[in-house]
Design goal:
Blueprint (H helix, E strand, L loop, with lengths): L1 E3 L4 E3 H18 L2 H36 L4 H4 L6 H8 L1 H15 L4 H19 L5 H15 L2 H12 L2 H30 L9 H23 L12 H14 L12 H7 L3 H29 L5 H6 L1 H22 L3 H20 L3 H28 L4 H24 L10 H33 L11 H6 L12
Helix pairs in contact: 1-11, 2-8, 2-9, 2-10, 2-13, 4-7, 4-18, 5-7, 5-8, 5-18, 6-7, 6-10, 8-18, 9-10, 9-15, 9-17, 13-17, 13-18, 13-19, 15-17, 16-17, 16-19
Length: 491
Amino acid sequence: MTHNTEHDTFDDGAIEKQDVEHAESRLFEEDPLEARRVLRKIDFRLIPLLLFLYTLTFLDRVNIGNAAVWNLESDLHMKGYDYNIVVLVFYIPYILLELPSNFVINRVQPRYWVGFLALGWGLSVLCAGFAKNMGGLLTARVFIGIFEAGMFPGCLFLIGSWYRREELISRMAWFMVSNDVAGVLSGLLGAGLGSLNGKGGYSGWSWIFFVEGGMTCCAAVLALLFLPSFPEDSTFLTPEEKAWYLRRLQRDDNNRTGKQQKMSFRGVLRSLKDWKVLTSGVLYLSVCVTAYSLSVFQPAVLTTFGWSSLKSNLLTAPVRAVSGIISVLVALWSDKVKRRGMFCIAGFLISIMGLLLVMLLHNGNLRYMGFYFASFGIYICQPLVIGWCVNQVIGYTKRGTVTAFAVSCGQVGGIISAVVFPSKNAPQYVPGISTCIGFQALGLLTVANMWWWCRWENKQRDAGKRDHLRQLSAEDQEKLGELHPDFRYML
């Protein structure tokens, strides 16, 4: 039996499928508590595990800053710029392999890929503790960079695939608070493990690498067992929940078809021509020069105040704790009001003020206060700039390209920070801090440019200046992505 109208013909199967879809839609759309339950189910499965894994990633990356104050340089006979080179060499494979890694995670189960990466860099950190000379430490740092390269962009890619645009920044902030958790733990573990100096015939810096590398190897098992896949291939939601959630995401992203889309080389090259993708790289570079400088060199700067190695390590912890709390609160506020640009500008300005206090003042306590402003200002910006750029594009290919390209550019900031803070510039470190301020000024200009352009383009669409694109076929309109006249950029 069929039902005919003037334009369409439906069979019983199509009518039944449509009725089921309407019923599922009504079930969740008319019950916000039930919809919130599904969203929380996803949050608890995805965010805490990624936060834990990336905490270990960041901890293993910056723990060399804590190791440096526990006889690392003297034991390995390092002089001059040797320490800076060891810090720098990590970023070379990290930068080169981030975009290729997003190709891999897009094609295999994320839990297999992330578990493999975690095991690889955990073993590399552990082996660094056995280094007998600078060459051994350099080799370990290269392998840490190789394995860690896929972790950060892959996690951002996965998070960006699971949430709607107005929900994204707060989740990214919760994920990136792992930087601050790692900063707190790094100071505490650096002080505690470093105090094992001499135990078993190993220096304090070796114990830092042994214990933290071993923790990461254990965490690899958790990733292998529990990390979820992309929404289209997920299994922890019921069929009804999954069907509803995919339709919910599709309304936010016209490129979703119900099947996981694969990144292509041609699509990536096309995405790299988009100014919004390029802007993501400039913004994250502007953030990371300061973020890495604070993470790696803050303990060394604090020792120039006349404070002991133990005190310098311990006092990095409260700075990061405050930064983490403030960054999450600002991210929640940003998602609530659906605004990004004004918070980015505020974060850059606060951080610049803090850096000026550290550079220009001579009183140790006041300079330490400057670290608070510098840290929470820049860590406000970190989730915002990546999340904002992900908000401005549609589709797996562009989102995967944005996250990988932005993070790759950010690691150039790590290289810059590694060479602009030589110990000879102590105690004020004017060249290094001035470099951080200069890049944040670049960030301010870039934020203002994107904010103005997106506001202007939204006005054009509100005025109907892009409605001629509606004359394209449905298939061609789907390919428009964020160029579709119904799409509005986040401001």
